[in-house]
Amino acid sequence: MLVRIPHPMPVTTSPSTVFVVDDDPEFRESVSLLLESVKLNAEVFVSAEDFMANYESQRGGCLVSDVRMPGMSGLELQKWMVEQEIKLPIILVTAHAEVPMAVEAMRAGAVDFIQKPYSPQQLLERVQQALRQDEQRRRDERADRLTQNLLDSLTRREHEIMDLLLDGGNTKEIGNRLSLSTKTVDFHRRNLLEKMQVDSLVELARIVRPREQ
């Protein structure tokens, strides 16, 4: 069950970083200076292996990587990130654009595939798009965890009554089904709404069953 909390709990994310992977020192420096000129954090790596050895999985941002590098290629790095469930948006850059390569990269989840030479504005637009995507993902994941913590605070009976309420049952019907008095059902209803920090079943449904809204 996907859960997401939209109400007033603080949902913060750590600063985003643009991770730049390329064996060309001039490219690394130029991209780094470009990003820093618009106040974006940038970290550079000389190879895919360098990035793999130093990246901390909880850090957010996006990856800008050359495709053709000594050792592991950008596409191979992308596959490794998928296997490791690293969800950083990826922008692949190459001087040797090939349609099959671009299709493979996009199918594997790359945000974009840019051919050199490109304009600085083009790269900045792609990076900012990728950072917005990652920031939204991290906010959603944090909100999901917060909501799950609230769900975990419910008792077994409260879970049972919550599911019946969300399936459209009223207090009398739920009481008859569970052999409880309407007063007891109402008591559990009030408790579970308070624990979930919502004021109504409509709000509860938006949190617990967002895909059904």
Helix content: 40-55%
Residue windows where pLDDT falls under 50 for at least 5 positions: 1-13
What structural category do the secondary elements indicate? alpha/beta
CATH superfamily of the largest domain: Response regulator
Rg value: 24 Å
Main sheet: strand order: 2-1-3-4-5
The assigned CATH architecture of the largest domain is: 3-Layer(aba) Sandwich
Mean pLDDT reading: 85
Label this structure with key terms.
213 residues, 12% strand, five-stranded parallel β-sheet, Arc Repressor Mutant, subunit A, disordered N terminus, Rossmann fold
Description:
α1 (25-37) links the parallel β1 (17-21) and β2 (41-45). The protein folds into two domains: 17-142, 3-Layer(aba) Sandwich (Rossmann fold), CATH 3.40.50; 153-212, Orthogonal Bundle (Arc Repressor Mutant, subunit A), CATH 1.10.10.10. It has a five-stranded parallel sheet with strand order 2-1-3-4-5, with helices on both faces. It has nine helices and five strands, in the order βαβαβαβαβααααα. The chain starts with 16 loop residues before the first strand and ends in a 5-residue tail after the last helix. The protein is of the alpha/beta class and 213 residues long.
